[in-house]
Amino acid sequence: MARVVEASAVARRCVADITAERAKCSFPQHEVTAVLDGGEDKTQQRRKIEELFLSDPEFLDAVRPEYLSHEDRYANELRKACHMIGKFNNDEEIQQLVGQMEGIRTLMGSGLGVALTKDGNPLALHFVMFLPAIMGQGTVEQQGEWMGRAWTGEIIGTYAQTELGHGTFLRGLETTATYDPASQEFVLHSPTITATKWWPGGLGKTASHAVVMAQLYTQGQCHGPHPFIVQLRHQDTHCSLPGESHAGEIGPRLGMNTNDNGFLRFTHHRIPRTHLLMKHSQVLEDGTYIKPHNNKLAYGTMVFVRVAICFDAYRQLQRAVTIATRYSAVRRQSELVPGQPEPQILEYQTQQYKLLPLIATVFGIHFSARSVWDTYNEVTGSMQEGNLDRLPELHALSCGLKALSSSDAAGGVETCRLACGGHGYLASSNLPRIYTTTTAAITYEGENTVLWLQVARYLIKSYREACKGHTLRQSVSYLTPQPASSSASPSNLSNHALVKAFRRAVSHLVAEAAARLQKGCDAGMIFEHAWNSCSVQLARCAQVHTRYFTCEKFLSGVERAEVSEATRGVLTRLCRLYLVFHITNNQGDFLRSGALSPQDMSALEGELAALLAALRPDAVPLVDAFDIHDRILDSTLGCWDGNVYHRMVEEAEKSPLNQKDVPDAYHKYLRPLMKANL
Ligand SMILES: CC(C)(COP(=O)(O)OP(=O)(O)OC[C@H]1O[C@@H](n2cnc3c(N)ncnc32)[C@H](O)[C@@H]1OP(=O)(O)O)[C@@H](O)C(=O)NCCC(=O)NCCSC(=O)CCCC(=O)O
Ligand SMILES: Cc1cc2nc3c(=O)[nH]c(=O)nc-3n(C[C@H](O)[C@H](O)[C@H](O)COP(=O)(O)OP(=O)(O)OC[C@H]3O[C@@H](n4cnc5c(N)ncnc54)[C@H](O)[C@@H]3O)c2cc1C
């Protein structure tokens, strides 16, 4: 009885701590929620959808996935994923709310979708890549043939590109698709062990079909990687098609273990000619190859997914920083002043420095991802009319923001875990799962270093064009060499002056890298070796350029937001923190370029401390404004009511090991050891 009384006193204290935080809020929270959702109507719509799904008992888990076997975990997530699609297909209210076709994909990738299928969704690749690949790479007739069946779930697909031997280097793929004009078929073949497709999500046991990227051979010539639709499993029995293709799962991974990432090998597997997705390039019946307008159009599906990943990164970071911030308001530890009560750990400036810049990062990614998404729509719109001019810019932007958002989010989630001390290491905090999901995005869809180097390639090319007097695209127009008079230090440190300082720092870095590259070439190195010898510096140019892009979008997003002055106030403080945090962390770039002086740096460091103190009272209100349902957070540490310790104990009691006082393993192993000498 005494224990219960004491426990409820602890609960009351936790709840009181978090309630007191909410009283400090300086802004109308619904406005921030609406900014992030894209409007108050969108907030209402999202909440309604969440309610419809979360109130459905089918989405409840009988036990934590961690306690299930590998196979049962897969079955459990597949059950929920299929129920999700079934619910969408059969419920008109949900269809209207979620929006037609486009909606289910958004739903699966949303915070809700991620929370319903906890450890990876076996159907994710079907929606995230298989359907977009058919839409982006198929002719109208091909879309007619495959899309309807794919939307209803009659066929389930994946995107099989990566092989055991090659993921990054697409031109190195070994799977061949050789056209046979006699039968009007392509023959798919995996000539070596390293040609085995390896990694595609859902390929192991779920997918009946795949878009397979293979080297297209016709009339004795190789035309590079192209997408083909391949049936992998029998339409009625779901059995592998005997002999010609062999698929399976690749085994346990760091996370996302219910995505059944798979392998696939072909032995002279024949598919009809019309299964080559022919929107951009065609093979005629006699084997004649018709070239695309741009030979990188076959990579289009990846451009779309890279943009989508920025939104995933944003949602995962939002969840993690909500958990860590709420926990930091409830957790009390150590003494700030000897003899005084233990403070909330959020009182420590170092803790604020861990969390507040991450709250700001959520907004930074939000505004820049929205901007890249708009560019994606504009560029793909003009591509429909045959204008490919802006494709390189879109490629560079999508690579840069995918790399920046995934590395910021993964680093941020890890910081959140550390900010929760030991308890952040518990599965029930949900931080380990959020981390393993988020860090995967650094690797998939283009490994980040490789993507940074693609951005650098665009920067150097643009810089060289600017030096020749050519006009540059908007996102890199600042690389145009400026007259010496415009290079004085800023007269003030306004937000706009800091963004300008970023521009100058990147221009300087790019000019230096370009000069070093040229020096290598002048010394007789072939361009590629000179490039490799500068690539650490080149990757750095890409990172700082993309950071500049996020700073600019953050600032313009805050300035343009239709909100009250109180909301603009807190958003401006966050934007300021974002700028000051990144500048003070990368002082060398700003000092070397003369964009800022050592005195400016001292002033900004002083301001950093003041910003942390100014934002501290709004920390919990800000994460509350992310408006994430407790079931979507799925964390003992991050729950809305702050009742942390009770939930942790309750979760621990559920461990299968706690169902018996003495486990069977004691009798089998421990007892013989302990009694050996008796
Ligand atoms: C690194 C590159 C880009 C290199 O390609 P390359 O053919 O060797 O090109 P290069 O000779 O270096 O020339 C580069 C040139 O190609 C252009 N380019 C490259 N990619 C694109 C594109 N997507 N759109 C438009 N243009 C593109 C670049 O702008 C360069 O143009 P330039 O020569 O400078 O004019 C490519 O190999 C690549 O994209 N690799 C990454 C592989 C990847 O992303 N795989 C994803 C597999 S699917 C997956 O992971 C799904 C996970 C999803 C989930 O689980 O949710
Ligand atoms: C969880 C998960 C899900 C995935 N899902 C899919 C899927 O559905 N479909 C699919 O087709 N694939 C999928 N993949 C594969 C993924 O796209 C590749 O793993 C990724 O593109 C990286 O390629 P890689 O594994 O060959 O790495 P590598 O290229 O071998 O990278 C290893 C190291 O080499 C470096 N490196 C390589 N090339 C260069 C270069 N040119 N310059 C400088 N450094 C370089 C990299 O930076 C890295 O440090 C998935 C992967 C994961 C982890």
Automatic annotation (TrEMBL):
Q: Which domain of life is it from?
A: Eukaryota
Q: Which cofactor does it need?
A: FAD
Any one Pfam family here would be: Acyl-CoA_ox_N
Q: Which residues bind FAD?
A: 162, 201
The yes or no answer to whether the keyword Lipid metabolism is present is yes
Q: Which GO terms describe its biological process?
A: fatty acid beta-oxidation using acyl-CoA oxidase; lipid homeostasis
Provide the alphabetized UniProt keywords. FAD, Fatty acid metabolism, Flavoprotein, Lipid metabolism, Oxidoreductase, Peroxisome
> Which family does the UniProt entry place this protein in?
Belongs to the acyl-CoA oxidase family.
PANTHER family to which the protein is assigned, alphabetical: ELECTRON TRANSPORT OXIDOREDUCTASE, PEROXISOMAL ACYL-COENZYME A OXIDASE 1
| Protein name according to UniProt | Acyl-coenzyme A oxidase
| Protein species of origin | Chionoecetes opilio (Atlantic snow crab)
